[in-house]
Design brief:
With about 300 residues, the chain is mostly helical. It contains 14 helices and no strands. The longest helix has about 30 residues.
């Protein structure tokens, strides 16, 4: 029953998150906000909605290990699984991608999070600066995109319809706003029950089951992008998601309560997250393609990580 609850929660999160993004995108376009701004802000923020609601819900319920494990585990899964599986299936031509600036930002915020959790429990004192940094990054992205608008073709926004009827926009927003907290509550409740019944720590459940579940939208987006030979979209999706997970998800969750970090995450998983992020250095700075062999190695590395956690 608990696994059914988790599965149903994940399904609701995926569909509610997609509905929220579609509704927000089309509302913005109907209000006259340029698609460029919508793509860099609303869509980028919307893809992190499942992680955000799950972590906030976990903090409110007094389950900090699930809140932190969700973010750390998602960032690990994003690199090893979300890039690994599509690369294993199709190979990724990333040698032409230029994501150096975003990648440096990802490493910087990962190091920042590592430093913060060693300073003490995460609270609003840390959360507000994290959210402020994200706002600055987004403002810089918008400025850069405007400056290079003629050189860079902006991809069409999925589900965008500038002429969508108002009632349909309202329906999408309602499904997203109502569905996300319901799905998050089901996922956290089911995951917590599983952890207790199998005598597995809540940190491990957050790092694996919850983290992979909330990363499913990124995985689906990346597989589709790689299939259509859009490696830059796939790589940018992972890097951007990892930045948002740290700055937005943990930053927002810490406003709802103090988040102590377990010794397990402090001594092992946070370092795995940092090491995994550094794996992308040759891909980003030396323009190395993520071949099928790379994909197999990344996927196998994630399997080994899970085995170590469960052991």
């Amino acid at each position: 029953m608990d696994f059914l609850l988790v599965g149903l929660g994940l399904v609701i999160l995926v569909f509610a998150g997609d509905a929220l993004v579609r509704g927000a995108v089309n509302l913005s376009l109907r209000l006259g906000i340029p698609a460029l701004i919508v793509g860099l802000t609303i869509v980028a923020f919307g893809t992190s909605a499942p992680e955000l609601l799950v972590s906030v819900n976990a903090v409110i319920k007094g389950l900090p290990d699930i809140a932190v494990g969700n973010v750390v585990g998602s960032n690990i899964a994003n690199v090893l699984l979300v890039l690994g599986i599509p690369a294993l299936l199709f190979g990724m031509k990333t040698s032409h991608c230029d994501t150096r600036q975003s990648y440096v930002q990802m490493i910087a915020v990962t190091v920042l999070l590592t430093a913060l959790i060693f300073l003490g429990p995460l609270s609003w004192i840390f959360g507000l600066p994290l959210l402020g940094i994200y706002v600055l990054i987004m403002a810089n992205e918008v400025r850069n995109a405007r400056a290079h608008r003629r050189e860079n073709h902006m991809p069409e926004l999925e589900g965008a319809d500038p002429h969508m009827r108002w009632w349909k926009i309202a329906a999408f927003l309602a499904v997203g706003i109502i569905g996300l907290p319901i799905g998050a509550d089901m996922l956290v409740g089911g995951a917590t029950a599983i952890a207790r019944s199998f005598e597995i720590s809540e940190a491990v459940i957050g790092l694996t089951l919850v983290a992979v579940g909330t990363s499913l939208p990124e995985l689906a987006t990346t597989v589709v992008a790689v299939y259509h030979r859009k490696a830059d979209v796939a790589l940018g999706n992972v890097v951007g998601s990892n930045i948002a997970n740290i700055l937005v998800v943990l930053g927002s969750a810490s406003l709802f309560g103090t988040i102590p970090v377990s010794s397990q995450i402090l001594s092992f998983d946070i370092w795995v997250m940092l090491a995994v992020a550094l794996l992308l250095y040759p891909v980003v700075f030396h323009r190395v393609d993520i071949s099928r062999i790379w994909g197999a190695c990344l996927t196998a590395a994630y399997a080994a990580y899970v085995v170590v956690l469960l052991a």
